[in-house]
Amino acid sequence: MLIGPNGHGKTSLLEALLYGEVFRSFRGALDRELVRFGENGFHVAVETEAGDGGDREGEGRQDGPRSPGGRREKRVVAAGYDARTREKRVSVDGRVIGRKADAIGVVRGVVLSPDDVQLVAGGARERRRYLDVLLSLVARGYVTALAEYRRALRHRCRATPADIADWEALLARSGATVAAVRRAWVQQWAARYAEHCRAIGETRDAELCYHSRGTGNDAELAVALERSRERDVARGTTSVGPHRDDLRLLLGGHELRVYGSAGQWRTAAMALRLVEAETLADGSRGGGGGGLPVICLDDAFAELDAARSARLGSLVDGLAEQGSQVFATVPRDGEMPEAVSRLPRWRIGEGRIETQ
Question: Global pTM?
Answer without folding.
Answer: 0.86
